[in-house]
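User: Lipoprotein. Structure?
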Amino acid sequence: MVKVHRFFFYILALMTAVLLLGSCDNLLGSDNDDDDDDDSSSYSTSTAAVDYLGDNLSIFFDFSTGTLTAVDHDMWDVAIATDGAIIANSGDYGSGVTVYKTSSTDISDDLSSYESKVAEYTFKSGTTLYGDQTETNPFDDEIGSGGSGSGTVYLVKDEAGIYYKLVFTSYGPMGQYSVNAVEGLSGTSTETISGTIDAAYGYTYFDLGTQAAVTVAPKKSEWDILFTRTNDILDDGSGGAYIAGRSDVLLNTAGGVEGATVDDTAIEAVVNISDYTFSSVIDTLGYSWYTHNHSATPAYSVNTLTYVVETTEGNYAKLQPGSFYGPNSEQFYMTFRYYYQADGSTNFSR
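Assistant: Predicted structure:
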């Protein structure tokens, strides 16, 4: 009996040793490990819940901290950059800010006859559209005027449907600006909005209802991409173009952010990006992440692609959109996976 017990003890000891060796092999990392450096734990997941049919937010995202900063889309109407670039807040679903460049240079003029011409526009430049609107950004001629404005009166209708007459009187390389504003198409009471653009920010944003600057975006060093509703130029299929709302992902170009799109590619497959061509065009990522099915029952589906972004820190991140709808059918509710490479390498470790 003693020999038998010793035999079983020997077998038990041998089995224990085998199990321990196997455990050590997993701890040290084996070339035969089916879970070899499992990537899933290295990726982060976040959600940009814009929900343009409900909350209608603009959401700024910083890859280095994983921080989402959400603001109401309609907090501002017009914005000015330190280089004199001017934009209006287009793309609010069904009620975006609309603009028209008049031929008047007198802000006291009754411009009621222009009411029907005030229209949607996009921040893009260089495309001729329909009717009287020949520039995608009506403010383009103001850019680079060199310290003094052109004197042109612009009409702006805000999200509440109130009209304003605007004349940009001055702006300079140090960020100084001065804008004359009159409420109403036939109004004559002029208010002056003036100040200095903080160089730490890309733009100074204005709410025309209060005639005051408002804080919308974080500092340009504190975010990389923006999830927001904008107007974009689309091909009408017959050689013309039209403007339509789109769910866009925009780059922080003021902060030096650039991006690239990798079509039909899973995020795990994006490894060595040293040969990628990056662009500083603000909508390089844009709305390529989804497809709109214009059927009797319109539906949105997410495309298989990965975005690569060079961040404000000069590091790289990759992102893959995973949803268009939220749990309660919210639209533009992007849940996405991303990986931030903090060492500046162009060869992702995951």
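The chain has one helix and 21 strands. The first strand starts at residue 44 and ends at 49.
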